[in-house]
Design goal:
This protein is an alpha/beta fold. It has ten helices and twelve strands. The protein has a seven-stranded parallel beta sheet, sandwiched between helices. It has a five-stranded mixed beta sheet with strand order 1-4-3-5-2. Helix 1 crosses helix 4, helix 6 runs parallel beside helix 7 and helix 6 runs parallel beside helix 10. The relative contact order is 0.13.
Length: 301
């Protein structure tokens, strides 16, 4: 039977590829800077590794370019269904890819993705479950907390400063890897002063819970009269609530703890040796509290 004469459909723009053979290529320079955490181009993030690239492609955020090495080609079949729109595919050698990678054992695939934008207003949802990081400086802790936040149904997060101590950039390379892509999927407000954000959340009717290692603060002071100290299962997580998680060493600033609706502390087994576990780290504590929040909220469904 004779052919109809129709031309084959054009390949989608995402299927077009460019080969890169020079270390000085402008695309490689951009990948090199963004994968290292350079934020001068505030509109884009660099993500590396199959999991983060999948997260970027599935996030609904614009993916400007995909960089694939010779060994990274093995991942293309897995992400093919996620490729769409004007994503530029760039192919290069393993050696050149290693020159831009931020990891010691590169997987051979990276992407440039539009940086998510979230505002304080995005956090003000009905029945919000929020986690607020105040002076959490380890990017691994930041990413792990955001991963737990998504896993246990949090509606948003904020990374804040207090008393001159900031929180590690949730969009930095180490935090992004620890989050396994959660940073791209939940609203994260970065850089707000902790005290002013708490004031805004309180005005919106959000209950404030301060996570503390013990009923006493880091200076050994007991809570003021009328201030509640709760175990995780004693707290009411079913209404709009924010969990405040403090610095790994110093904890939360005193003014935030004293201004909270209640302190929440996680009980631990008594140490059986002279040197026992002093307290859970920030990421572990946040995970326990977020799980309890999800458990209570699940009972309402």
């Amino acid at each position: 039977m004779a052919r109809s004469g129709k031309t084959a459909p054009k390949q989608p723009e995402a299927a077009r590829a460019q080969s890169i053979t020079s270390r000085d290529n402008s695309w490689l320079k951009q990948f090199r800077a963004l994968l290292a955490g350079d934020r001068r181009d505030g509109g884009l993030l660099g993500v590396e590794g199959l999991r983060l690239v999948e997260a970027a492609l599935g996030s609904g955020l614009g993916v400007t370019a995909l960089l694939v090495s010779e060994s990274g080609e093995r991942h293309m079949a897995r992400i093919a269904s996620l490729l769409a729109g004007p994503t530029q595919i760039l192919r290069t050698s393993d050696k050149l890819f290693a020159s831009v990678a931020d990891t010691q054992m590169p997987q051979g695939i990276a992407a440039l993705v539009q940086r998510p934008k979230a505002s304080v207003e995005d956090l003000m949802q009905p029945s919000a479950l929020l986690v607020m990081l105040v002076g959490v400086q380890d990017p691994g802790n930041v990413g792990t907390i955001l991963r737990a936040a998504e896993a246990f149904g949090a509606t948003g997060a904020a990374t804040c400063s207090a008393n001159g101590v900031g929180t590690a950039d949730p969009f930095g390379p180490k935090a992004m890897r620890a989050s396994a892509g959660s940073t791209l999927r939940i609203p994260v407000v970065h850089g707000s002063p902790g005290a002013s954000l708490v004031t805004k959340l309180r005005a919106a009717g959000v209950k404030i819970y301060a996570a503390v290692a013990t009923a006493e603060d880091h200076a050994g002071r007991k809570p003021p009269a009328g201030s509640s100290v709760l175990l995780p299962w004693e707290a009411d997580w079913k209404s709009s609530v924010v969990i405040l998680i403090g610095n790994e060493g110093a904890g939360l600033p005193e003014e935030l703890v004293r201004g909270a609706d209640a302190r929440v502390t996680i009980p631990q087994a008594t140490a059986t040796t002279p040197i026992g576990v002093e307290s859970l780290n920030a990421a572990m504590a946040a995970t326990v509290l977020l799980y309890e929040a999800m458990r209570q909220r699940s009972a309402l469904r």
